[in-house]
Each structure stands twice: as structure tokens, then as C-alpha cells.
């Protein structure tokens, strides 16, 4: 088993340590700034090789990496944006099956999440395969310190990939969210844009930033840069208040480790209710209105 | 005005039971008809209690019962009178309603409405979903089509049939609503509670696809109205129908009134443990015959709830059958008008005649005093209490005191419960005339 | 341009994980709608024609008709079973999409949710890929060239330039599909939909087990040796000493709001 980690600007992608841990410690780091990135691995690692091959080019890289990986029966990438893009290309180049979006990977068992994180499928692979691991699903025990790395010589032949023009630092619009110590989040169960306008003001009154789930952001109720999770903004607040949020893996894994979680949901068995210190079964929209009243917020005024 | 879409003979607005029936009949007559529905599919947003009386379909869709997406066939019907601590039921069961041609079935509106609209489509109607009629296209006072919320969304046709449900926006725009006062509406509120199929059958003493229908009087506390409880396959629908102005005045929330009804000792065991799957509310036109809006204007017909054709007076909760019948009558009148080339109000007058001749207006005329009567304080509170007290007195075994006999019990109770003989006589007379 | 027919509100049994889908609530996802909108803008800006493709059963044609109503020119359905893998879906689609300047997809499907179909398409079409884009910029004078921005992890973003042939997948938030005109809707009802067969599926093992998702136990950093045994256990089990046992309450909205504010005060977030 081996992990393939795409590095940009010396920064590890989310889920890198977990992928390396899941693969038992051996890894190939490719991209730019790979040495710096390797030094940032916290997980106990074994054989780590690095290849400094510049800007992300999945088509070309897949061709270059295939011979290196051919002897590995299991190739694991974190399901971060770059890992998710490279994995199918690798599977195609290696002529293998792809098992995408796994929460657990071993040689003979892979658990995949489906249906927005509500369903788990356990697969028994029928040959060597490539898999992506959902970041945040397993955690890691740190150990061992920075690995000893070997340089891997890779010859990359351009293959018509997109040209990377620039990599932008986190959007200032979301910085408050990424760094917030308190976050109030609304989910799909709030049912419309109206409650989000109230949510924003309630958050403000509590000294918190407001967030959303992807369902809410896709529906257009909250700006697209406000959704929290693996594919959105990753956060690490002390206080997390979640209104009508189910708690799908992809959302929860972007949450960090809040000290205190409050959840309001009509469904007592929603995963986030199980994580909460204070879980309240109630209609979140109505609770939001009541909070607004108590915090002296005029709900009818448009923000 | 773009001329592109004058090519419908009729536009029907709303794919509820009224609209789909109108479109079906028009399409069968070879007319090009557009059926507009604002929801993503017919029935997606529609709610009601749960029972459809399908006899009205016999002529339109023979053996409809083989196809209708029924949950259960009602073979047991109960009318219940409640006071806070008492319940009196008249419970009727007949196996005749459990086999063709059947009487009524419980069915879910997303299923039923989609099925009926599908029939209209099969006949050639053009169903256009996710499209809302936003107004009438008019030439002077004459309706010549509708506007929709889509780009280039005007639809022109010599006849528009407004089947857009209670409080019809289109009928109002055409000036047909004379009495849009709140007292002519009730609010229907309903919960659907999931229960395992065998549990439904056990609690309501049903077998196979048999179903039960309970209408309830006196279970709505301070707000005049009624209640209902219907059985689906693996869920039950329980709800209340509430007089709108009284509800507002009472400052009670409808969901609390349902909760009260569900907590009544006679109802609680029937609904216990059900998990809430759906909560919904909808207005019901309940003004009766006297408050009916106009149903015909130049180029426009109004059918179903839009025309106030719903019977929600105590013993009955029927609207779908009236919607279907009125939709059919509207379509027939439209066909007549299209044939003669006169779709003015005069040319469409056949609609009102058809309604008068059928059960639609005959029932409404007959029951025109029912809403006032059923919602009166006496029928809501006094009589239920008195009735229950009489029965309680009759069946309470007071030994060693001898039995009192029904009449004496009634007299004593009448005095106690403040029932005035004069009122009772008058109400009984009205009841006899209304329901008799 | 790809559109997938998928249930937006599938019912998942919390005990067995059994998924019940309903054709009535099935349609293209927000992401696929956003992709369609970008496709329409491309043909408006650059000329050319928009072909919309789906792989699935006959019922899936509703998404094609919706796309035709909004302005797509041609539609094809690849007849494919639901058991097909992402790679097989992509192979089926690729046969008909070969030769396209730009292929647009949604970033993730709601059910499979892997985002791998567009990546496989890119591999099979030997095309550049820009996946999970949030905004695209199209220059009317440079047909076939797409400038895109997409999210990376940690809140970073990336700007890309893609030359055709390219596969671009887009996020659902942000870009709304235009509303189809009434004329479009009526014409789409009658429009022809081509049906193509897919390459045969290779038999693959069905999942051993399907169940509700349960988080796996997370590994944590080992507790500091300076802590007492009890504290170490608490750290390991994720229960810091000041963390009272979780509470699950059923409350009316007003009481719930009071309870939440009380709790925030207890924790010291509010005065
Ligand atoms: C590859 C991939 C990546 C993803 N990345 C992310 C990500 O980064 N971030 C993210 O958030 N999601 C992400 N998702 C989506 C994720 O899987 C879930 O679909 C999403 O998080 C669910 O959001 P939700 O809880 O708001 O909505 P829903 O799943 O719709 O849940 C709504 C919740 O509200 C409750 N509810 C309903 N009505 C009420 C009410 N009136 N009062 C109280 N509660 C109510 C319901 O019981 C339910 O628990 C991703 C999905 C995929 C496939
Ligand atoms: C709580 C309750 C319980 C009931 N129980 C029963 C019962 O058990 N049995 C019974 O027979 N009846 C019952 N009824 C009455 C019954 O629901 C109605 O009488 C019946 O639905 C009327 O049918 P309709 O076609 O006129 O209108 P609706 O069923 O209201 O259909 C109107 C349609 O028009 C669409 N629409 C509205 N406006 C527009 C627009 N501008 N553009 C496009 N489309 C539009 C709507 O989406 C809808 O599909 C009950 C009603 C309620 C509220
Ligand atoms: N069966 C399909 N037919 C058409 N497009 C599809 C299909 N499956 C996936 N796609 C496209 O690929 C995107 C990502 O899907 P997935 O890889 O399944 O997460 C979707 O948003 C669609 O645009």
C-alpha cells in the first residue's frame, strides 16, 4: 500500500497524514515544495519518496507515476481537491478500479460513503485498486518526527493539462470564518434564504461568524464561500452551534475539534446530534426566531 | 404580443383534481389543451385529509378502481362526538365498500393527482409543470389567455379554466369573488404519522386493504371546527379543520389544537407512537352555497376549490369529488362553446346549468345552512356535551337507584347543560332540512 | 455537457441504510444545472451547439428535456444500468462526447458523490481537466479557452486556463440555471432524444454490505505523560474533564432558545 500526496507550494493537502497512516506509512509526495511538505508530516512514516515536479498536471503526472506505482496493490490518495482529480487519472493509467470517497481502506475491504454521507458501502476489491480517503475520517496518532525522504526521479511529459495561472491565498471573505472561535451554522433544514438572514444577525449578536452546509449554499441561501467542510472552508472553533445540520461526514470533517457543540434538529438520530454537548430536538427555524427575539434582533429588517 | 402560442383551444390552470379532469375531457374531445401546474409535478404541493370518493369517476374512467393509486379502501366509517372527557361514536362498517365498485379510498395527493394528470396527458393534454400562471391576459373584460412566470410566457386561448384552488387568484382578478371574507374559509391542518402497517390494521380493526375514516365533532377546543383521522397503508392522517376568524381570535396555534386532539383519551391510543412524517396546512372554502363566487365570465370558467365547491360541513369532508365533477362540467361547457365559436359568458353559460343539474350544486344547495349550523356554539359544544351526558346517564349503573330511562335522563341533562328546548327544536328542524 | 438524473431527497433508513428513491423528486442537481448554464453561455458567446448527455434509464430523459427547454440543441441518452461504475459511465458518455471542445459536468453527483466521472471523462478524452470550479470566465474572442477558478483545501483557490479539449466541472452554488421560456418547454416536449447503447459492463462484485454511515473511531494524539491516569483516559476517550455528559432534550422553540442561551452563559460565551 502506498499513499500519493499532491503538494502545492510546500503545503500538504487536507487528509495527507491520514492517507499516509492508512497506507501503513509509505508515501510518494509529488508537486512543488515536496521536501518542506514531507517535513510537515506528523504521522509515523516508513518509506517516503518525494518528486519535485512543479505545478499540478494530473494527466501528465498519472503517466509518469504509473510505472512507480504498478507494483503496489493499493494506492491511496486523500480525497482533497487535487487527490480527487489525480486518482481517476491514476486508475485509468494503471488500468485499475477506483474506489472513491472511502472512510476505511485495507487490502481486502474498503468502506465507501454514499448519498451525501448517509450510507456506507463495504466493498471487497477484486484486484489492485486506487482509492481516495475522505479527510478527517480517521484521525492520526502523531509519532516518529519528520521522515527520512528519498528523492524519486520522475520524468513528466506534458499531456495537455490545464495551465495553473496562480494559487490564491484564502479569500478574505472567509477568513473570519476559518479563524473564528465561535461559529453558528445553518443547514438544509432551515428551508430558505429568510432564516439565513436571521442566522447571520444572531451569529453577530453571539460574537460568532456564520456558516452553512453545502446543501444550504448550493440552494443559494448562503454565499458559496460560507460552507464548512472538506470541500469548503475548514474551521476549528471553540463553540459550534448547528441549526438543522445533519452532520454528514464531509461537513463534520471540516469542523476541527470544537470544545462545545450545540445542535438543534428535528431528527434526534442525526449524526451531529450524537456529537453535540447540548442536542435539542426542535424546529430550528422557530428556535432561531426565538433566539433573535431574546437577543433583541428585529427579524423583519433586511440585513 | 407574440402570436406564437395562440394554438391552444383551452388553457387549464392548476393540475389538481379539477384541472386534470377538465384537461382530460377537453383533450378527449380532440381539443388542444394546455394544463399548467406550478409544482414540479401534479400533487407535489397539494394536501388534503385523505379520502377520495371515486363514484364521480365512473363515467370518465370506467374501472378506475383497478388503477387508482389507493392506499386503502374505506370499509369502516365512524362519526365521533367528543367532549374533553367523553366520546360517542357511531361506527359503521360494510364489506360492500371493500369490493368493486367501491365507495371511497384513502390515497396520497402526490400519487392521486399525478395519476389523474397522467390520464389527461395520455388523452393528449399538454402538461406544463413548474410554471405558475401569474395573471389573466385580457382584452377589455374578456379573458384571452394567461400570463406565466416563464420568459415569453403568455399563453393565448379562447377559454381559460381556472382550477387554481381555494382563494383563486385568477377568479379574483376576473372580479368573480364577491365574498372573500375570512369567515368563508376554514383552515385545514394535518399531520401524517408513520406506523407499521400491521399496527394500523390492529388499531383500527382492519384487514388487507381495508381502511377507516373517522370524522370528529367537538374535538377542537375553543375554536369551532372539526377533526378527522384517516388510515393510509402504513401511516395515519390526523387533522383539524378550524374556523378562520375564531382561530385568529383564540390566539391558539393550529399545531397545538392537533396536539390536543391527539391527546384526547379516545384518540391517543390510536395515534400513540406514530412518528411525524409531514405537517401541512391549507385553506378550505367553506362558505357554502351562499358564498360561492361567480363561476363564468367572458372566456373564463372557474372550477373546484377555486369556485368554492368544497363540502366541509361536519359529517362530510369532500372536495375532490366536487372538483372532478365541476372540472368535467367546465370542460363540457367549454367544448360546447368552442364548437359554437362563442366563448363569451353567454356561450359558456352551459357550465352553471350543468352544475345546477348535478350533485355539485344540488348538494351545496341542500347543505347551504350546514356551515353556519355546524360551526355554531351549540353544535360545537353544547350538544356534544349534552349527548354524551345523556348516554353517560343512560349507561351508568346507579344501583340501588333504579334506571332513569332515556327521556328523564335527557331532560335532566338538558337542564344541566343549558340546552334550551326552543334552540334544540329549531336546530333539529334545520338539521332535518339540511341533512335529511 | 452532462446531466445526471438523481433523487434530491432520497429516504435513507437510519437502521439499515436502505435507500429509497422516488422519480418524482429526481432531477438534475444544482451543480449540473450550473454546468448547463455555463454551457449555454458558451454557445451564446462562442457559437456552436450544445449537446446534452445523460447515462441512465429512460426515466432519466426528463433531465435532457429540461436542458433542451433551457436551450440545449441536441440530446442523447446512453442506456446504462444504475450499477455501472464511474469509469463505465464516463466510457459510455465519452463515446458520444468525443470531439467536443469543452465538456461540462457538475462537480459531484448527489448519490455517488465521488466527482470522478468528469475526471475519467478527461482521461478518456485526453482532455485537460478543471474540476470543482466556482466561476468561469469566457472570452468571446477566444472560443474554446476557459479561465476558471476553483477551490483548493484550506481556503486557497487556484486560477486555471484550459485550452480545448477540456473537461470542466462546476460547483452548484453561485450559478443559477436560467428559466426556460414557455416556447422552449413546449418544443422540448416534442424534441427527439437519441438513445445510444453503452459498451458492455464488466461484471464487478456488488458491495458486501450496505448500511447506514457510522463514523469510525478517530485516532487521537497520545495524551501528555504529565497527566494523571484518569485525565489521560479522558483525553483518549475525547471527554475533557470540563465536558459534562451530552444532553438530548425535546423542547418547545422558546424553551430551546432559553436553554441554549443559558448553556452559552454556563460555558462562559455570554455574560
Ligand atoms: C464529495 C462531497 C463533498 C462534500 N463536501 C461538503 C462540505 O465540504 N461541506 C458540507 O457541508 N457538505 C459537503 N457535502 C455534502 C454533504 O454530504 C451533505 O449532503 C451536507 O453536508 C448536508 O447538509 P445539511 O445537513 O444542511 O442538509 P440535509 O442533509 O438536508 O439535512 C438537513 C438536516 O436538518 C434537519 N431538519 C430538517 N428540518 C428541520 C427543522 N425544521 N428544524 C430542525 N432540523 C431540521 C434534518 O433532520 C436533517 O438532519 C459534500 C458531499 C460530497 C458528496
Ligand atoms: C385539511 C384538508 C382535508 C381535506 N380532506 C378531504 C378529503 O378527505 N376528501 C376530499 O375529497 N377532499 C378533502 N379536502 C378538500 C380537497 O382537498 C379540495 O377540495 C380539492 O383538492 C380541490 O381540488 P382542486 O383541483 O379544485 O384544487 P387543488 O387540489 O387545490 O389544486 C389546485 C392546483 O393548482 C395549482 N395552482 C394553483 N395556483 C396556480 C397558478 N397560479 N399557476 C399554476 N398552477 C397553480 C396548485 O399547485 C394545485 O396543483 C380537504 C382539504 C383540506 C385542506
Ligand atoms: N450517469 C451520468 N450521466 C450523466 N452525467 C453524469 C452521470 N454520472 C455523473 N455525471 C456527471 O458527473 C458529475 C459528477 O458525478 P460523480 O462523479 O458521480 O460524482 C455529475 O454532476 C454529472 O455532471
Features:
heterotrimer; A: 303 residues; alpha/beta; Rossmann fold; 9-stranded mixed β-sheet; C: 271 residues; 2 domains; 3-stranded parallel β-sheet; 7 helices; 24% strand; binds flavin-adenine dinucleotide; binds adenosine monophosphate
Number of strands of chain A: 15
Specify Rg of chain A, calculated over alpha carbons.
Answer: 21 Å
* CATH superfamily label of the largest domain in chain A: HUPs
Number of helices of chain A: 10
Roughly how much helix do the residues of chain A carry, as a percent range?
Answer: 25-40%
- Main sheet specs of chain A: 9 strands, mixed
Question: Tell me about the biggest sheet of chain C?
Answer: 5 strands, mixed
Structural class of chain C: alpha/beta
Commentary on this structure:
With 303 residues, chain A is of the alpha/beta class. Chain A is 28% helix and 26% strand. In chain A, the strands form two sheets. Chain A has a nine-stranded mixed sheet with strand order 7-6-5-8-4-1-2-3-9, sandwiched between helices. Chain A has a five-stranded parallel sheet with strand order 12-11-13-14-15. The longest helix of chain A is centred in the first third of the chain and has 14 residues, at 81-94. Chain A folds into two domains: 2-151, HUPs (Rossmann fold, 3-Layer(aba) Sandwich), CATH 3.40.50; 177-294, Rossmann fold. Chain A is elongated and about 65 Å long. With 436 residues, chain B is of the alpha/beta class. Chain B has three domains: 3-76 and 108-181 and 290-368, FAD/NAD(P)-binding domain (3-Layer(bba) Sandwich), CATH 3.50.50.60; 182-285, D-Amino Acid Oxidase, Chain A, domain 2 (2-Layer Sandwich); 376-435, no CATH class. Chain B is 33% helix and 25% strand. Chain B contains 14 helices and 18 strands. Chain B has helices spanning 17-28, 109-122, 169-173, 197-203, 244-250, 254-263, 268-271, 320-340, 350-357, 359-366, 370-374, 377-395, 406-416, 421-435; strands spanning 10-13, 33-36, 51-53, 72-83, 86-93, 104-106, 126-128, 133-139, 142-148, 155-156, 159-162, 185-194, 210-217, 225-231, 235-243, 275-285, 296-297, 300-302. In chain B, helix 1 runs parallel beside helix 2 (109-122) and helix 12 packs across helix 13 (406-416). The longest helix of chain B is centred in the last third of the chain and has 21 residues, at 320-340. With 271 residues, chain C is an alpha/beta fold. Chain C folds into two domains: 6-197, HUPs (Rossmann fold, 3-Layer(aba) Sandwich), CATH 3.40.50.620; 229-267, no CATH class. Chain C has helices spanning 30-46, 61-70, 86-97, 116-124, 182-190, 229-236, 253-267, and strands at 6-7, 11-12, 19-20, 26-27, 51-56, 74-79, 102-106, 128-138, 146-151, 157-162, 166-170, 194-197, 209-212, 247-250. Chain C is globular, with a radius of gyration of 24 Å. Chain C starts with 5 loop residues before the first strand and ends with a helix. The model of chain C has no long low-confidence stretch (mean pLDDT 86). The complex binds flavin-adenine dinucleotide (2 copies) and adenosine monophosphate (AMP). One flavin-adenine dinucleotide sits between chains A (116-117, 187-189, 213-216, 227-232, 244-246, 248, 250-251, 254, 264-267, 270, 283-285) and C (108, 113, 115).
Amino acid at each position: 500500500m502506498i499513499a500519493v500526496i499532491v503538494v502545492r507550494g510546500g503545503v500538504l493537502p487536507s487528509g495527507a497524514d491520514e492517507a499516509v497512516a492508512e497506507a501503513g506509512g509509505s508515501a510518494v509526495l509529488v508537486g512543488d515544495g515536496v521536501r518542506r511538505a514531507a517535513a510537515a508530516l506528523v504521522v509515523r512514516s516508513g518509506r517516503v519518496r518525494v518528486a519535485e515536479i512543479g505545478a499540478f498536471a494530473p494527466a501528465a503526472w498519472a503517466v509518469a507515476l504509473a510505472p512507480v506505482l504498478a507494483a503496489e496493490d493499493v494506492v491511496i490518495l486523500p480525497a482533497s481537491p487535487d487527490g480527487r482529480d489525480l486518482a481517476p487519472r491514476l486508475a485509468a493509467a494503471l488500468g485499475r478500479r477506483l474506489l472513491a470517497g472511502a472512510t476505511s481502506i485495507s487490502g481486502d475491504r474498503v468502506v465507501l460513503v454514499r448519498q451525501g454521507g448517509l450510507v456506507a458501502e463495504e466493498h471487497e476489491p477484486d484486484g489492485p485498486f486506487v482509492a481516495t480517503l475522505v479527510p478527517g475520517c480517521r484521525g492520526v496518532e502523531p509519532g516518529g518526527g519528520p521522515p527520512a525522504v528519498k528523492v524519486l526521479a520522475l520524468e513528466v511529459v506534458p499531456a495537455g493539462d490545464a495551465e495553473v495561472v496562480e494559487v490564491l491565498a484564502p479569500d478574505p471573505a472567509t477568513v473570519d470564518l476559518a479563524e473564528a472561535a465561535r461559529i453558528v451554522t445553518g443547514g438544509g433544514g432551515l428551508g430558505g434564504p429568510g432564516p439565513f438572514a436571521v442566522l447571520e444577525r444572531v451569529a453577530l449578536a453571539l460574537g460568532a461568524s456564520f456558516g452553512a452546509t453545502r446543501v444550504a449554499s448550493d440552494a443559494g441561501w448562503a454565499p458559496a464561500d460560507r460552507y464548512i467542510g472538506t470541500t469548503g472552508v475548514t474551521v476549528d472553533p471553540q463553540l459550534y452551534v448547528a441549526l438543522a445540520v445533519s452532520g454528514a461526514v464531509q461537513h463534520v470533517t471540516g469542523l476541527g475539534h470544537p470544545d462545545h457543540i450545540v445542535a438543534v434538529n428535528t431528527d434526534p438520530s442525526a449524526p451531529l446530534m450524537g456529537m453535540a454537548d447540548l442536542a435539542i430536538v426542535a424546529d430550528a427555524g422557530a428556535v432561531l426566531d426565538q433566539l433573535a427575539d431574546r437577543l433583541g434582533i428585529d427579524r423583519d429588517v433586511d440585513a | 404580443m407574440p402570436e406564437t402560442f395562440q394554438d391552444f383551444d383551452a388553457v387549464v390552470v392548476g393540475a389538481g383534481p379539477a384541472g386534470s379532469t377538465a384537461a382530460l375531457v377537453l383533450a378527449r374531445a380532440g381539443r388542444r389543451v394546455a394544463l399548467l401546474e406550478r409544482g414540479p409535478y401534479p400533487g407535489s404541493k397539494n394536501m388534503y385529509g385523505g379520502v377520495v370518493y371515486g363514484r364521480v369517476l365512473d363515467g370518465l374512467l370506467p374501472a378506475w378502481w383497478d388503477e387508482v393509486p389507493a392506499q386503502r379502501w374505506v370499509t369502516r366509517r365512524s362519526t365521533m362526538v367528543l367532549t374533553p372527557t367523553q366520546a360517542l361514536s357511531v361506527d359503521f362498517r360494510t364489506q360492500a365498500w371493500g369490493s368493486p365498485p367501491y365507495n371511497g379510498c384513502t390515497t396520497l395527493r402526490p400519487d392521486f393527482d399525478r395519476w389523474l394528470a397522467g390520464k389527461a396527458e395520455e388523452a393528449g393534454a399538454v402538461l406544463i409543470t413548474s410554471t405558475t400562471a401569474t395573471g389573466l391576459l385580457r382584452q377589455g373584460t374578456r379573458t384571452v389567455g394567461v400570463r406565466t412566470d416563464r420568459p415569453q410566457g403568455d399563453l393565448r386561448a379562447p377559454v381559460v379554466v381556472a382550477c387554481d384552488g381555494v382563494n383563486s387568484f385568477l377568479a379574483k382578478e376576473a372580479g368573480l369573488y364577491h365574498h372573500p371574507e375570512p369567515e368563508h374559509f376554514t383552515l385545514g391542518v394535518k399531520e401524517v404519522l408513520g406506523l407499521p402497517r400491521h399496527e394500523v390494521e390492529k388499531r383500527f380493526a382492519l384487514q388487507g386493504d381495508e381502511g377507516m375514516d373517522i370524522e370528529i365533532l367537538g374535538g377542537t377546543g375553543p375554536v369551532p371546527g372539526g377533526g378527522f383521522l384517516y388510515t393510509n397503508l402504513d401511516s395515519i392522517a390526523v387533522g383539524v379543520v378550524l374556523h378562520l376568524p375564531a382561530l385568529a381570535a383564540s390566539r391558539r396555534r393550529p399545531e397545538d389544537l392537533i396536539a390536543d386532539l391527539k391527546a384526547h383519551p379516545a384518540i391517543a391510543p390510536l395515534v400513540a407512537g406514530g412518528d411525524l412524517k409531514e405537517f401541512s396546512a391549507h385553506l378550505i372554502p367553506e362558505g357554502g352555497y351562499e358564498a360561492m363566487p361567480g363561476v363564468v365570465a367572458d372566456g373564463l370558467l372557474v372550477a373546484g376549490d377555486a369556485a368554492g365547491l368544497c363540502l366541509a360541513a361536519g359529517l362530510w369532508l369532500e372536495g375532490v369529488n366536487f372538483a372532478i365533477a365541476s372540472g368535467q362540467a367546465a370542460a363540457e361547457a367549454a367544448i360546447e362553446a368552442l364548437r359554437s365559436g362563442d366563448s363569451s359568458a353567454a356561450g359558456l353559460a352551459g357550465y352553471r346549468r350543468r352544475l345546477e343539474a348535478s350533485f355539485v350544486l344540488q348538494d351545496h344547495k341542500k347543505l347551504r345552512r350546514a356551515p353556519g349550523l355546524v360551526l355554531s356554539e351549540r353544535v360545537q359544544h353544547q350538544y356534544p356535551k349534552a349527548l354524551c351526558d345523556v348516554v353517560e346517564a343512560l349507561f351508568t349503573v346507579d344501583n340501588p337507584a333504579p334506571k332513569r330511562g332515556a327521556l328523564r335522563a335527557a331532560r335532566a341533562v338538558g337542564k344541566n347543560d343549558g340546552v334550551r328546548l326552543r334552540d334544540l327544536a329549531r336546530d333539529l328542524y334545520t338539521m332535518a332540512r339540511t341533512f335529511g | 455537457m452532462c446531466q445526471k438524473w438523481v433523487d434530491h431527497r432520497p429516504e435513507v433508513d437510519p437502521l439499515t441504510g436502505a435507500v429509497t428513491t422516488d422519480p418524482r423528486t429526481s432531477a438534475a442537481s444544482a451543480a449540473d444545472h450550473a454546468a448547463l448554464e455555463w454551457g449555454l453561455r458558451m454557445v451564446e458567446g462562442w457559437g456552436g451547439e450544445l449537446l446534452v448527455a445523460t447515462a441512465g434509464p429512460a426515466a432519466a430523459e426528463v433531465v435532457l428535456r429540461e436542458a433542451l427547454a433551457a436551450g440545449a440543441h441536441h440530446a442523447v441518452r446512453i442506456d446504462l444500468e444504475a450499477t455501472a461504475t464511474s469509469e463505465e459511465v464516463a466510457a459510455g458518455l465519452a463515446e458520444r462526447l468525443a470531439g467536443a471542445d469543452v465538456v461540462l459536468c457538475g462537480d459531484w453527483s448527489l448519490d455517488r458523490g465521488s466527482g470522478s466521472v468528469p475526471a475519467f471523462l478527461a482521461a478518456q478524452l485526453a482532455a485537460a481537466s478543471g474540476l470543482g470550479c466556482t466561476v468561469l470566465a469566457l472570452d468571446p474572442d477566444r472560443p474554446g479557452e476557459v479561465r476558471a477558478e476553483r477551490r483548493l483545501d484550506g481556503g486557497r483557490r487556484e486560477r486555471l486556463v484550459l485550452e480545448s479539449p477540456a473537461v470542466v466541472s462546476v460547483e452548484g452554488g453561485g450559478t443559477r440555471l436560467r428559466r426556460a421560456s414557455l416556447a422552449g418547454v413546449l418544443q422540448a416536449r416534442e424534441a427527439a432524444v437519441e438513445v445510444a447503447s453503452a459498451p458492455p459492463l464488466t461484471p464487478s462484485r456488488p458491495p458486501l454490505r450496505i448500511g447506514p454511515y457510522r463514523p469510525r473511531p478517530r485516532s487521537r494524539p497520545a495524551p501528555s505523560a504529565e497527566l494523571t491516569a484518569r485525565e489521560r483516559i479522558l483525553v483518549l476517550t475525547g471527554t475533557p474533564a470540563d465536558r459534562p455528559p451530552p444532553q438530548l432534550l425535546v423542547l418547545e422553540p422558546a424553551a430551546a432558545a432559553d436553554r441554549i442561551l443559558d448553556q452559552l452563559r454556563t460555558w462562559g460565551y455570554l455574560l
